[in-house]
Design brief:
It is a single chain. The protein is an alpha+beta fold and 305 residues long. It is built from ten helices and twelve strands. A five-stranded antiparallel β-sheet has the order 3-4-5-7-6. Strands 8-10-11 form a three-stranded antiparallel β-sheet. Helix 4 packs antiparallel against helix 7 and helix 7 packs antiparallel against helix 9. Bound molecules: adenosine-5'-triphosphate. Adenosine-5'-triphosphate (ATP) binds next to strand 3, strand 5, strand 7 and strand 8.
């Protein structure tokens, strides 16, 4: 719809999309509460990944707040290293999130295929995650469930971080319980292998919890497995709170130093936290020598082979 003013300037209101504006194709993924379809917009022919959520299922499972959180966070993010939310709409039974299509799928699949990444790939993808976190934290958002499964890849093999159902938006200057601590008391946020000790002990996640996850991910890139492993979640949690992990032989020494500076029990003492010099200090670590931080998204990623 267009409205013309006396000045003759025509302002056009964005038209709300509907499912009829898209041709739905194959299923590209299934989550616990959603099905993701490859879809093409009729007319422009642009491809998207459309996440479809059944309202009844979400309500039955009491997941409404996570779905709303994901939408709110995605609407606040505008950066090339994150999956972009283009449109949302709904019909009587379903919610639709129209997302940028990360054609190359999950980074985890590449890790499984290759067993581990070489140093160049580990450095490059770790740097992209650092750049993404710098943006995210700068926007006052903590991801809280960072892991290789939630890192998708676009056509050019750059990262597209997704899954903001556990994320938290920090309001500046708000120190209330609601803002400073985890709202899901008695349950941890995230995934066992990547969860930070403070989430396990005090149930509070901060920006620094994402830095812990980054340490776990870098370790996994180079060794093929996350640092804290066990048959049961309880065993994994025990190891995390005791900082019980070992480096395999031959682990790159600069990467080892970086991992050790990220996997620190005190969240304020992790490299990249405000107290430890923030992202500038993290980006200056010797492991990242050679990374062109200002042009990462234009840099051709090293081949994952
Ligand atoms: P759960 O809800 O169980 O934690 P999830 O968060 O992975 O699972 P979804 O976000 O619905 O659930 O995604 C399901 C799968 O669809 C993902 O594992 C991913 O492989 C694929 N997928 C999701 N978003 C995109 C996207 N934008 N581009 C390409 N594939 C996607």
């Amino acid at each position: 719809m267009s409205t013309s003013s006396e000045s003759g300037i025509v302002a056009s209101k964005p038209i709300k999309k509907t499912p009829n504006d898209f041709v739905f194709g194959k299923v590209i993924g299934e989550g616990s509460y959603s099905t993701v379809y490859l879809a093409k917009e009729i007319g422009p022919g642009t491809e998207y990944a459309i996440k479809v959520l059944e309202k009844k299922h979400i309500m039955r499972e009491r997941k409404t707040q996570y779905v709303m959180r994901e939408k709110e966070v995605l609407m606040n993010i505008n950066h090339p290293f994150f999956v972009r939310l283009y449109y949302t709409f709904q019909d009587a039974d379903r919610l639709y999130f129209v997302l940028g299509y990360a054609r190359r799928g999950e980074l985890l699949d590449y890790l499984h295929k290759l067993s581990s990444f070489d140093e160049d790939c580990s450095r490059f993808y770790c740097a992209e995650i650092v750049k993404a976190l710098e943006y995210l934290h700068g926007a006052g958002i903590v991801h809280r469930d960072l892991k290789p499964e939630n890192i998708l890849l676009n056509d050019e093999m750059h990262i597209q971080i997704t899954d903001f159902g556990s994320a938290k938006i920090f309001k500046e200057g708000d120190t209330s319980e609601e803002n400073s601590s985890n709202q899901r008391k008695n349950s941890f946020v995230g995934t066992a292998q990547y969860v930070s000790p403070e989430v396990l002990t005090s149930k509070s996640a901060s920006k620094s919890s994402d830095l812990w996850a980054l340490g776990c991910i870098l370790y996994q890139f180079l060794s093929g497995e996350p640092p804290f492993r066990g048959g049961h979640e309880y065993q994994i949690f025990q190891k995390i709170t005791k900082l019980e992990y070992e480096f395999p032989e031959g682990f790159n020494s600069l990467a080892r130093d970086l991992v050790q500076k990220l996997l620190v029990l005190d969240p304020d003492k992790r490299l990249g936290s405000d107290e430890m010099g923030g992202f500038d200090a993290l980006k200056s670590h010797d492991f990242f020598t050679g990374i062109d931080w200002d042009h990462l998204e234009e840099t051709k990623p090293p081949e994952l082979v």
